[in-house]
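Q: Convert this sequence to structure tokens.
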Amino acid sequence: MNEVGHNNPPEVLELAETVISDISMVMADIPVVEDEKTAREMKTQIDRAKLCIRDLDAELANKVRPLLAAEEGFRGQYRPKKGMLNNLLEEMLDRVQIFVKAEQRRREQAAALLVAQAHEARRKAEESERIELEQLDNASKGEVGINVAEVISDADEAYEAYCKAERQAQIAEKDTRVKVGGGFSRAIGMRKAETLHLDDIYAFIIRCGIPDEVTEAVLKHARAYRKVHGKLPEGISSTVEEHL
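A:
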């Protein structure tokens, strides 16, 4: 049998199946390494596996390299135009955003005025209702000169004015969000984007612990620190374990 690693790249993928089958049979025959002879035999299979993996990577790289080169060539053609369009898009969005923010402030101010007017209309309606009840009570007790119809009419008008002002205020508050329509897609408007800030890392660690991703990032930074300073930073230690 030809050794893997001495084959032409197109044969590697097919030969890998043979290598996998051979190694699987050897491992089935040697479930436990108990002496140097079986260790050497297993070492041969380890080398075959390593060489096969290396040749698979090489074959894959040879096949992919032309595709990557072609992809980069296409990207080089498209990148300038896309970059210019992105710049134009960003500038247009900035200009529309200035308008949208100004218009939103204007609408918010108008809505705030209508809300204040609605509150005042409510106060007047409540006052008219109080006067209505008081005058009707006085009339029922025999007080003369009270125009009951006029008192009721004033209270009704005040209440209707309040209801109208309240509806206008509610509509104005809903209309404070500005949308720009037209074009070929859905309308655009301001969107909220949440940004988290790390205010106290110690409080976070006490509450949540250290996520694995954070640990890996810290250790990566510690290795970079050691390359520059020749030692690990304080708070980081290392252990050395032997393995094949």
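Residues 1-9 have pLDDT under 50 and may be disordered.
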